[in-house]
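Here's what a typical entry looks like (Phosphoribosylaminoimidazole-succinocarboxamide synthase):
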Amino acid sequence: MQKGALVYEGKAKQLFLTPDPEVLYVQYKNSATAFNGEKKEEIEGKAQLNNQITALLFERLKEQGIPSHFIEQLSPTEQLVRKVDIIPLEVVVRNIAAGSLAKRLGFDEGQPLKQPLVEFYYKDDALGDPLLTDAHIALLELVSESEKQSLEHLARQINTALQEIFVSIGVTLVDFKVEFGRTADGEILLADEISPDTCRLWDKETNQKLDKDVFRRNLGNLTDGYSIILSRLGGNSQ
Ligand code: C5P
């Protein structure tokens, strides 16, 4: 499909128009960012790893009855998606304490949670993506109460499906972030990406971090872990 004008550029992806107004062309980038863009690096190979991992995961989720904006992978670094208006909420699901939850509540990293925790953050770089309470969500009027409940329900379904996928490849799904969007006819769809940039993934045997924490904490070569995830999912990282 022909690549038209650039319509959006984020930290990790560029979106281009296509001849079909309902379809966008996504180009993944090699940029890695953390701490709201304060830490930034170009990492050769990251674009193709995240594009392919996202494509495989969105395909697997679809098989499990969870549709997304994903249409098809076009090349190692490009995919076609349905155009949606992104709802500016980051929905985070946690199975094990880590990251900002460990910091905020004083849990040890690695402490399993009694049940999965769903949190909403306001997707706003200028505000530093703050954690939202239900009252904040109501005040912001980004979604109705029933839409908020469906997002939470969907996020829990995605967690169950992803846990099953990752457990089968010897990986622990610690936590992840998803985003949703509205299609032109108002349908809410899973959107954006699901990759080691947006999940915490630990090797089940060794607890080796196979995700962006390697970059955030300077723990070594980022793409080593991403390549492990892609090849265990059945993809080809070359
Ligand atoms: O930093 P925190 O512990 O809140 O992150 C929870 C999960 O959400 C992690 O898997 C992280 O990679 C992901 N996340 C993200 N984009 C953000 C914030 C968090 O993908 N802007």
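The radius of gyration is 17 Å.

More examples are in the samples folder.
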